[in-house]
């Protein structure tokens, strides 16, 4: 059973993992790559546990999208600036 | 003689156990492994700085507050949530040095951010700020606790850090919210709010005296002085989201609430435990087993279940992880149930449980008369042996039976009791910890 249904806009782009992520109740992150999304995959899995979520998105937003021509509306809403004191 | 004395002191030292998900160092075991059974921790840095009065457990990090107002943290630190001035995990407790000139009275750990309140009502936050959940007016991450200037001329009592939002309770009982508001969890607007990065007043609680706030996942909750529970944010068990605080289950008088990502535990003044939501992993809602238990329902149709399997034993402490629960009963037993895949139930396996199961801390541990405290992070659990904050309990009889309970930081409450033969808990103003006292022994 899918743990939750999550809209793609509520997922965060993780540059290190090169994946969209969402918090998993185990403490790790559910993850799905752009390639997965282009293939119509809608399940984002957690590498640390058996849980998975269903990602709600429009596949057209990802087709023809590659890393050089990014679809602005799907880019992470916020680039996390880092402040180290 | 000397050695015997040292032994005695040693045995009086506060003990800390942890179990469950551990791959970010959150268990404090010095290892990056899950533990299926309670692990007794050796944390010299903590034992040398006095007793721990409370722990706050988040997504994968832990904050320890000592009775002397000092703060330590460990676990995942990749967004600055440990407050150590760097974006790194820490396997062992390290002091939050930038707060050393303050006396901290309250701490909270969210999914990836942290909050600290000082004795003079100042609020500090650090960690992930990408939804505005730090309240600094931006979306920056902070690796060192930064004072929330919005509250500069106000007196903060509590902060509750959740998945992507925060709630703040002021003296004078106003509640504020900031961070992600998509599920209505800030309670600030009828319209859908994506996020706000500065605190805004939660609407609908103006005429209510709020004494405590709670938040986890996309849920928010507050308890009033007369024991009413208000909830807002994501609905439980498929119920619709609430954009403003709703009086839930008005027939219930609760003293404490604990929130998971899909369930809520409620404790009444009589030590009765109720739960709603959680039909997935927090599962107590095995429908066949439930038919025999009392349930209450509120106007929205949410069904509240009295937690079964406790045989009328009173509950003293409650805690909720994302998908599991932990409690301490009046006879000193620690019990857990819910999702168990990472060993977060501490039962030696990865099974889920629908009914509270007793956790053994080891053969030498006498649970009797010991009031353990339990704390849950998303996928892990901590237990600590009693914190002796109690310095005096003074008996006064003025028509009714009254006790004045005073903690070491000289906060005090006057407590009227109905049955002078039982154990009571008292909550100090501005302190999260509770004091337990047995009136029989005092009389
Ligand atoms: Zn997981």
UniProtKB/TrEMBL annotation, chain A:
Residues 64-85 are annotated as: Disordered. PROSITE patterns: DPH_MB (PS51074). Belongs to the DPH3 family. InterPro entries: DPH3/4-like, DPH_MB_dom, DPH_MB_sf. GO terms for biological process: protein histidyl modification to diphthamide. It comes from Dovyalis caffra. Pfam families: Zn_ribbon_CSL (PF05207). Residues 65-75 have a biased composition (Basic and acidic residues). This is Diphthamide biosynthesis protein 3. Keywords: Iron, Metal-binding. It comes from the Eukaryota. One of its GO terms (molecular function) is metal ion binding.
UniProtKB/TrEMBL annotation, chain B:
This is RCC1-like domain-containing protein. SUPFAM superfamilies: RCC1/BLIP-II (SSF50985). Residues 15-383 form the RCC1-like domain. Keywords: Repeat. The keyword Repeat applies. RCC repeats lie at residues 14-68, 69-120, 121-172, 173-226, 227-270, 271-331, 332-387. PANTHER family: ANKYRIN REPEAT-CONTAINING PROTEIN, REGULATOR OF CHROMOSOME CONDENSATION.
